[in-house]
């Protein structure tokens, strides 16, 4: 039986030397704080964009630098929460130095995803739009529901804070991908991002995806499966970014032990179940 409580237990053999990119951001600063309090990790590098006001200041006793190349050789793993262009630049450095990477950045194009997949043939990469335990369990439940309720219509509603730059969220995109893959459908052809005007009768195969931006909402995702005379709703609410930060550390502990390849958080769940 799958034990949720044990899903993210990882056996550590040594301190994991970690570099955080986007170290002054909401996620990067929280991850750095957790590393400083975790006996299994050590923060050896902090990186920010070239013109960031925090450059040369310290975070958890580590000076923030502009260039990953200056600190990457000290590390066992790089944790990345920045923007797609920066992530790809940093990934090229990790490829050159043979350092695994955990990527929490969202908003990649298909072409950029192709580059990540190519580099994953040379170094281990864990890429996830959402690193919380609850959301990754949600992914598993959605996959089952999409198959069992194959004739049900689906709508996805995601809500985030008003400063989030990309829409829909990476998590919402992944939910839509899981549903489309489970039903052998082409997401590009059936995704509907909001509706306006005389849109006509709903295509039962389409997946509706809607984005809300409100105040300081950390992250909420609701998936609705609608059938005749009934409706199933799956809902996840994140109340603190710490759940994502802790997941990133679990991801780092996992990826440093892997062979080259592209992994997701589901790999951690599957690995735990096998053992």
Major sheet characteristics? 8 strands, mixed
Give the strand content.
Answer: 25-35%
**Helix-strand topology string:** EHEEEEHEHEHEHHEEEEHEH
- Count of separate structural domains: 2
CATH topology assignment of the largest domain:
Rossmann fold
- Cα(first) to Cα(last) distance is 11 Å
Unreliably modeled segments: 1-12
The CATH architecture of the largest domain:
3-Layer(aba) Sandwich
Assign the structural class, choosing from mainly alpha, mainly beta, alpha/beta, alpha+beta, or little secondary structure: alpha/beta
Helix share of residues?
25-40%
- Helix tally equals 8
How would you describe this protein?
The strands form two sheets. This protein has an eight-stranded mixed beta sheet, sandwiched between helices. A five-stranded mixed beta sheet has the order 9-10-8-11-12. The chain has two domains: 4-131 and 241-274, Rossmann fold (3-Layer(aba) Sandwich); 133-238, Dihydrodipicolinate Reductase, domain 2, CATH 3.30.360. It is an alpha/beta fold and 275 residues long. Strand 5, helix 2 and strand 6 form a beta-alpha-beta unit. The longest helix has 16 residues, at 133-148. Helix 1 (26-37) packs across helix 7 (242-255), helix 2 runs parallel beside helix 3 and helix 4 (133-148) runs parallel beside helix 5. Helices cover 34% and strands 25% of the residues. It contains eight helices and 13 strands. The protein starts with 15 loop residues before the first strand and ends with a helix.
